[in-house]
Specification:
Blueprint: H1 3-13, H2 25-28, E1 36-41, E2 46-50, E3 56-57, H3 62-73, H4 94-98, H5 109-119, H6 123-135, E4 141-142, H7 144-151, H8 155-166, H9 174-185, E5 187-189, H10 191-202, H11 216-229, H12 235-241, E6 246-248, E7 253-258, E8 262-267, H13 278-291
Helix pairs in contact: 1-13, 3-5, 3-6, 3-11, 5-8, 5-9, 6-9, 6-10, 7-9, 8-9
The chain binds glutamic acid (GLU).
Length: about 300
């Protein structure tokens, strides 16, 4: 089936539902029924439906890109963060104590804070530069209202950061790390921007300009961690339904990678009980069912 027709059909068939993330006030005001879908193919062509050009808060989707930037330097970050599913909520403190301040994986909040710390001062600006280049959209930026709202409600993330600092697993001051992390989560991008920016993972590490961010193994590893840890405590269900590496965020965005073919981004702010976009997962389920493009 032709991709433009396919994304239009999926957008017409899904029913957005669920509740918006209420714990960040600026996100709680978004319409849970909004929906956008974009598929970017390896040559950079984008097929979109719904509100695929409307910017939204990327939130935890940013964690894929900071991990990739850290791994592009070397593998050292793996001495500070694990790569196993956590089986706990994304902002849980419990495991950190029994595991001596080493977060289970880079996609729970504690792990993402360590990755941001690993990238060092200016992490969010580096991320922004990368996202602007890969998406081809120089207008991408931080939504200051979301950043302020999130920073004002960051007691839990600050607790995680200070707790890890007590185990010696932060290099920069805990509050500085949380501020960078909040900026990174508050970046606004559309589905079209994000699908294009995710293409390097479908191209086994090669960026849109033909240079390499990651080696073939590096890209494989980021995709593997997305598959096993990318959708909160529902990665098994996501693999079962969608069958692709994916990463979701509480803003309602989900990115997914079909290695060797395309990158997909879907956005719908209504979330299920485990924090994944209801219509987002449904749309990806339909996409892989209709195309047969999963990794299985
Ligand atoms: N900035 C959010 C937080 O730290 C991100 C959560 C998410 O999207 O999973 O709570």
């Amino acid at each position: 089936m032709e991709l433009q027709h396919l994304v239009g059909r999926i957008a017409a068939e899904v029913t957005p539902g669920g509740a918006v993330a209420g714990y960040i006030p600026a996100l709680a005001r978004i319409d849970p029924h909004a929906f956008g879908l974009a598929v970017a193919t390896l040559d950079g062509e984008v097929f979109g439906a719904g509100e695929h050009e409307r910017p939204f808060s990327v939130q935890s989707v940013s964690k894929v890109f900071t991990l990739a930037l850290a791994l592009a330097e070397n593998d050292d970050v793996w001495t500070r963060v694990g790569r196993e599913p956590s089986g706990s909520p994304f902002n849980s403190l419990v495991q950190l104590e029994t595991e001596q301040g080493i977060p289970r994986n880079p996609f729970i909040n504690a792990g993402a804070l360590v990755v941001t710390d690993h990238l060092g001062p200016g992490a969010a600006d580096r991320l922004l530069a990368f996202l602007r280049e890969e998406s081809g959209n120089p207008a991408i930026g931080v939504d200051p209202e979301v950043a302020e709202s999130e920073l004002g409600h960051s007691d839990r993330n600050r607790a995680l950061a200070h707790f890890m600092a007590s185990y010696g697993n932060l290099r920069n001051p805990a509050d500085t790390v949380v501020r960078e992390y909040v900026r990174q989560c508050s970046i606004e991008m559309s589905c079209a921007d994000l699908a294009r920016a995710t293409l390097f993972l479908a191209r086994h590490g090669v960026r849109n300009d033909g240079t390499r961010l990651l080696g073939v193994s590096g890209a494989k590893r980021v995709n593997a961690v997305m598959l096993t840890c990318g959708t909160y405590d529902a990665a098994g269900e996501f693999a079962y339904r969608v069958g692709l590496p994916g990463k979701s965020g509480v803003g309602g965005g989900v990115i997914a990678v079909v290695p060797g073919r395309c990158a997909i981004c879907v956005w719908s702010p209504g979330l299920d009980a485990r924090g994944n976009s209801v219509a987002g997962v449904d749309a990806l389920d339909r996409f892989t069912t209709l195309t047969g493009w999963s990794v299985f």
